[in-house]
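[Meeting: bench + compute handoff]

Bench side (C.D.) handed over the final construct sequence. Compute side (W.E.) agreed to return the predicted structure before the next meeting so the bench team could plan truncations. Sequence as handed over:
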Amino acid sequence: MTATDPVRIGLIGAGRIGTHHATTLGRNLHQAQLVAVADPVEASARRLGEDLGVDWRPDPQSVIDDSGIEAVAITCASTAHAELVVAAARAGKAVFVEKPMAMTLADADRAIAAAEAAGIPLQVGFNRRFARDFAWAHDAVAEGRIGTPQLLRSLTRDPGLPDPGAVPPWTIFTQTLVHDFDTLNWFNAGARAVEVSVMADALVAPDFKATGLLDTAVVTIRYDNGAIGVAEASFSAAYGYDVRGEVFGSAGIVQAGSPAPLATSLWTVDGVSAPTVRRDTDLFADAYAAELAAFCTAVRAGTRTTVGGHDARAALRIALACIEAVETGGTVTIRDDDRDVVA
């Protein structure tokens, strides 16, 4: 095996994000060779495999056991992530896993321990770290160009809820805002979240609040370096998918992100307009490709990934604290020895 040989990857999970990642790996990334796709829903596995011209399987374990596969991309339902990370690590496979890496801190710890014991690269799909504008903002903060961080902000606004009844409880924290929690932690590198308070409600689909749906939330996070972070999310951005970040410091401010994927504006007698998109894979197309390329580089070079299991655990800790804050109606202190606040 040489440093230029593509990484042989098997993908588990043929849903929306799995299809996007598989297409990138199979058609658009010279560092990767997609060998097989697997999904317990046989029709989904067949559709994706035949579309990309690769082997398809209904059994995810067959990908992990395949000696011709050296890395596994886990893009299936979040509840299955941790077990598959552990199984893949024990089989000696490098792992790329979509966020969240686990749904409980105990499972996150098991996944981290398995990867470290096996000595395999483990990367988690926090794609904003690979977006050029977010990376530039992070570097500006790290280089001290805005002074001491004091106020941080990250937001995610999804374009809508096609089926509010199909959204699992706590999705807004564990699936959506977990991206923002990682972004804030990354921007405020070296600091630790110590306190969380939350305001959340069902403002988009109020009739579904009784089923556990929360579709609008604002989270305030206090860090041990004194900085205060705010993360907000809504599932009702009529104008398109919108992700932004900001760090205000003692010497300046840096901002990243826009709902417009292109630096293009149209000026007419009707005013000024810019194009927007309705999918994260369109707004962050380059970042999604870049994170997979970085994973392949780490696998082939035998180096650590830029965003790993401990980063995923730190974001999950905040998400779980948010759930506790909603359930108790108060501010939650995040302790060093935190265990799961929900199962």
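W.E. noted at the follow-up: The longest helix spans residues 309-328. C.D. will use this when planning the next construct.
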